[in-house]
Design brief:
Length: 362
């Protein structure tokens, strides 16, 4: 039986907010409703003063929606946001350091100051390479404005919920959740910053991730409020900065580094992506976007340089096909470049390497 938005809104209209005494629909508390082939997702937005105390209301909404005939799964997110304050902005106190996540030994962010430099490609292949080293790995795609992990890992189904917790999907031996799996294609742009932040923090804290050695977060590109809040509210052990070798990208990478330094998140190192191009026909080596800029920037800023990833058609084709190069062809020089970076990252987060399990392409 096909279920539609009206059915869901009607069901939600029966849920009464105990604070206002009116329905959550009437009070405009439901945002970002998505109904796709029986799978329903929405955001319940409450006043920041209520925060997590509104969790029973969210569960009540879930229960109401689950009763609608044809509904296969419900994923909801509770967010508490405040409208931007009228100017002048009050001085913000530094937030307390975030608590760790039970059963997750380390959380690392893969970030870039600029979009399109291959941040997601690096995040996905780094996660798979860490898993090849024997670590238990999770991957959270937090790139609300261009979530590419579903495509790169070939994920289509929505993660199921269990007692208000998300169950990550499994692919190539890692656990993965993407914010993209909860959103309609055109929806990301209408999500306001605070909603994104709350949803992400909830996906991290309410995901059934444990046990994990490392959770890799594919950050949204840039250094705006969303990124800053993640850096402050997620217990990050460190950040990997991805850049291409051009000056413009490096300037943005420097801004990214400054942001992590400001929030006391250690920079684990810089990766230069799309570094060298070797012509598959004649073997000639060329540097389409320049070469070595990220290494120089790292040296100048006193941050580690983690390595170079070549510009290579196989990297793009395998990502597009949902079989990333580290899973599809682990013995190629391109995959080995990711493995070398993963070895350094594992060492920096204090994870000894274990015998590599084999990754099975499903
Ligand atoms: N080393 C590489 N060689 C060839 N193609 C690459 C390489 N790295 C990334 N790409 C391709 O470049 C495009 C952008 O990569 P990706 O989506 O990883 O970038 P991003 O920085 O995460 O982008 P966004 O900021 O939009 O999320 C993709 O088509 C990807 O396959």
């Amino acid at each position: 039986m096909a279920v539609n938005r009206e059915d869901i809104l009607k069901a939600l209209d029966s849920v009464i907010d105990p604070v206002s005494g009116r329905s959550v629909v009437h009070e405009d508390m439901i945002e970002g409703l998505v109904v796709r082939e029986g799978h329903v997702g929405f955001v319940l937005e409450v006043d920041p003063a209520r925060g997590a105390t509104a969790e029973p209301l969210r569960l009540e909404c879930d229960e109401a929606v689950k009763k609608v005939p044809g509904v296969l799964s419900v994923t909801s997110v509770l967010t508490a946001h405040s409208e931007p304050a009228a100017s002048p902005r009050p001085a913000r106190k530094a937030p307390p350091p975030p608590a760790g996540i039970d059963g997750v030994k380390a959380v690392i962010a893969v970030a870039s100051g600029k979009g399109g430099v291959g941040k997601s490609t690096v995040a996905v292949n780094l996660a798979l390479a860490l898993s090849k080293l024997g670590l238990k790995v999770g991957l959270l795609d937090a790139d609300i404005y261009g979530p590419s992990v579903p495509k790169m890992l070939g994920l289509t189904e929505r993660p199921l919920g269990e007692n208000g917790k998300f169950i990550p999907l499994q692919k190539y031996g890692i656990k993965a959740i993407s914010i993209g799996l909860f959103l309609a294609d055109d929806e990301a742009t209408i999500w306001r910053g605070p909603m994104v932040q709350s949803a992400l923090v909830q996906m991290i804290n309410d995901g059934l991730w444990a046990p994990l050695d490392v959770l890799v977060i594919d950050m949204p590109p840039g250094t705006g409020d969303v990124q800053l809040t993640i850096a402050q509210r997620v217990p990050l052990k460190g950040a990997v900065i991805v850049s291409t070798p051009q000056d413009v990208a490096l300037a943005d990478a420097r801004r990214g580094i400054a942001m992590f330094r400001k929030t006391q998140v250690p920079v684990l190192g810089i990766v230069e992506n799309m570094s060298t191009f070797i012509c598959p026909n004649c073997g000639h080596e060329s540097h389409i976007f320049g070469h070595g800029g990220a290494r120089e920037t790292a040296a100048r800023l006193g941050e580690p340089f983690l390595g170079e990833i070549p510009l290579n058609t196989a990297i793009r084709l395998t990502s597009d096909a949902g079989t990333p190069i580290v899973a599809a062809a682990p013995d190629t020089p391109e995959a080995r470049a990711f493995l070398l970076i993963a070895e350094q990252v594992a060492a920096k987060i204090g994870e000894p390497q274990r015998p590599a399990p084999s990754i099975v392409i499903e």
